[in-house]
Amino acid sequence: KEKFFDVNHLFINNISGHIIINSLTDENLTARIKKFSFNEENSGFSLNHLSLTLNNNEQKTEVKDFSLRTENSDISLDIAINRQGKTITGFKAVSHHSSIGSRDLSFFLPNLPAENKSIFIDAEVRGDNRSCLCKELTIRSAAKDFLLSMQGQSDSDINTLLKSPLEQDWKVKVNRLNAKGEFLGILSKTLNARGIMLQNFGDINYTA
After folding, report:
1. Alpha-carbon 109 to chain mean position
2. Which one, of 139, 122, 135, lies nearest residue 176 by Cα?
3. Contacts of 53 (CB under 8 A, 6+ apart)
4. Mean pLDDT score of the chain, rounded to an integer?
5. Residue 195 CB contacts under 8 Å (≥ 6 apart), including other chains
């Protein structure tokens, strides 16, 4: 029987962490997580390493040097959010050379293949109170059966986009798309099982 991560039935042990709080007031929080890890016994999911630096005040939130590692994944991320009151005036997120293993995704998404397949991601997204820009999004598989390189822009401001992302219009430029039929078949089976119908395709090779 396959095991999945269920937030309603958690059995967490082997928790280990080193957290440093440099400043904590009503207006400001500065903290650093040097290493945090745990095992979730019911699903078998293990977080091997989590570290980050957090700077938060009334005008800005910064998450720097975010690093999350499991046996199958290695994710790095930097996020900066500017605010005026409760309104976000600026947003930027950058991730370079991150990798996600399908085995980790299968803890949260059923119907993925048992064999672990690694996906590498490079991304840079930014937005303000006028528009949002996906400056870079590159997704490629370690098996070289999938590659997507694209950019995108929306005239919606970042607050509108966060509230209803699927309802906003995007201008998308696909620079390159290569996909093997076998990869698309696995993707189709996974999406169809979740009610998102996708027909099977053969190989796709496109370069702008």
Report:
1. 14
2. 139
3. 31, 32, 33, 62, 63, 64, 65
4. 88
5. none
State whether the Cα torsion 67-68-74-79 is positive or negative.
negative
Q: Which residues pair with 179 in a beta bridge?
A: 146, 204
Q: pLDDT tens for residues 153-187? A: 999 999 998 888 878 899 999 999 999 888 877 77
CA–CA gap between residue 150 and residue 11 (Å, rounded): 40
Integer Cα distance of 72 and 63 in angstroms: 23
Neighbours of 25 (CB within 10 A): 8
- Spatial distance between the Cα atoms of 90 and 54, rounded to a whole number of angstroms: 17
Assigned token pair, 38:
């745990």
What pLDDT is attached to residue 154? Answer: 95
Round to whole Å and give the CA distance between 57 and 81: 10
AA letter at 36: F
Using a 10 angstrom Cβ sphere, with 0-12 exposed, 13-18 middle and 19 or more buried, the burial of residue 160 is: middle
pTM: 0.83
Q: Let me know: does 133 contact 150? Beta carbons within 8 Å.
A: no
Residue 154, both tokens? 């929306």
CA–CA separation, 1 and 204 (whole Å): 35
